[in-house]
Specification:
Elements: E1 16-17, H1 20-32, H2 35-42, E2 79-84, E3 87-91, H3 103-107, E4 115-117, E5 123-125, E6 128-129, E7 136-138, E8 140-142, E9 146-148, H4 154-162, H5 168-178, E10 180-182, E11 185-187, H6 194-212, E12 230-233, E13 242-245, E14 250-253, E15 256-259, H7 263-267, E16 269-270, E17 273-274, H8 275-284, H9 304-329, H10 338-343
Parallel strand pairs: 2-6
Antiparallel strand pairs: 1-3, 2-3, 4-5, 4-7, 8-9, 10-11, 12-15, 13-14, 14-15, 16-17
Helix pairs in contact: 5-6, 6-9
């Protein structure tokens, strides 16, 4: 996957939140403020200030492009993003508010796209990654699922080697099953044995299904009957901490309880942090005494939607924990040699494959309503 893009740098935490209503409240507070108070709430950086102009993000045609001080415009509709590993939140898609928004990623964001995020354990999402995650590799270089982000010639070579049609998503599934961090970065050996390829493909498809969590019209993964988490008691107060009882497999927060929560789900870590603890911390952030300005604006009561998201997250982590031993034990066997890939013209990938494709099918609006010149 030659084309890789650095992660988005938001520059200010208030532009993203677990609750879309909170983002609209923050927008209203910012736009109603004036002068020095607006500057304080905005939190200017070298890249973005209220007086700086910016182009509309591709695909977000409702976004204003006038300088914020001249006319903020209406609140843009929040979009779903992946903020942290397995934590889907919301973002205000206004490039005037984001230090480094990566427009090249927004241009290829659609219902066909998937993003591979380079973390110690590879992570795939259908949402735009917008956090401190790692380098991002889109599966497709163009909208509509056109032109895979793969080294030219790779798919025909694999199809001939394995005796069947190989799709870009197959390669993505193989990466999930066989990829490992190495001394030269993330390394993905390609199996020489068709049987090992098919075994890795089967494991990778299961991993992908769990990670996508029903995105792109798929069915959300479920645990077998008897293992599915349920709300045993409703939340009665704002959860200031979360507790886990391994004996009863119960998660307690704000007077509410959810069970069964398998130990594997509670202990599941990403980037050295327990995912469930980080998920709760993100939803308590606006209640932190240290929160200031727009970051302190959020729901006064625990939204019921968050409990539903929690149940889905527990399911995802439990299933991934179940698959972890199988993935750790998977051996791709003997690999295709680099000489064979070079002879087929796959390696090294051409320079153009490492850059974004030209995907403009309409004129994009630049700062101040001008058309963008790209």
């Amino acid at each position: 996957m030659p084309w890789a893009v650095g992660g988005l740098r938001l520059g200010r935490d208030w532009v993203a939140a677990p609750d879309p209503a909170a983002l609209r409240t923050r927008w209203a507070a910012l736009t109603s403020a004036e002068g020095a108070e607006r500057d304080r709430l905005f939190r200017p950086s070298r890249s973005r200030t209220p007086a700086a102009g910016a182009a509309a993000l591709p695909g977000q045609r409702s976004a204003a492009t006038a300088r914020f001080t001249d006319g903020p415009g209406p609140c843009p509709d929040p979009v779903r993003v992946l903020r942290e590993p397995f934590d889907e939140q919301w973002l205000l898609p206004d490039q005037r508010l984001i230090d480094t928004a990566r427009p090249e990623l927004w241009r290829v964001l659609d219902e066909h796209q998937l993003f591979l995020v380079e973390t110690p354990e590879p992570l795939v999402t259908a949402h735009l990654p917008a956090g401190r995650l790692g380098r991002i590799r889109p599966l497709h270089r163009r909208p509509g699922g056109a032109e895979p982000n793969l080294a030219p010639g790779l798919l025909p070579l694999l199809g001939e080697r394995y005796g069947g049609w190989v799709t870009p998503e197959d390669v993505l599934c193989w990466i999930l099953a066989a990829g490992r961090p190495g001394p030269r970065g993330y390394e993905v050996p390609l199996a020489a044995d068709p049987l090992r390829w098919r075994a890795g493909l089967e494991l990778g498809h299961r991993l992908l299904t769990v990670q996508l969590r029903g995105a792109r019209g798929g069915e959300a993964p479920r645990l077998p009957g008897g293992r599915r988490p349920y709300v045993r008691s409703a939340v009665t107060a704002w959860p200031h901490e979360v507790a886990y009882d391994a004996g009863s497999e119960t998660l307690g927060f704000g007077g509410g309880t959810v069970s069964p929560v398998p130990p594997g789900a509670w202990e599941y870590e990403a980037q050295g942090v327990r995912v469930l603890e980080a998920w709760f911390a993100a939803r308590r952030a606006h209640r932190d005494p240290a929160a200031d300005g727009l970051e302190a604006l959020g729901p006064a009561e625990w939204p019921q939607a968050w409990t539903s998201e929690l149940l889905a997250l527990v399911t995802t982590l439990a299933l991934l924990a179940d698959l972890a031993p199988e993935r750790a034990a998977f051996e791709p066997g003997p690999s295709l040699r680099a000489g064979e890939l070079r002879a087929a013209g796959v390696l090294p990938p051409p320079r153009w494959a490492r850059r974004p494709a030209s995907v403009l099918d309409h004129q994009e609006e630049g700062p101040g309503g001008q058309f963008a010149l790209l």
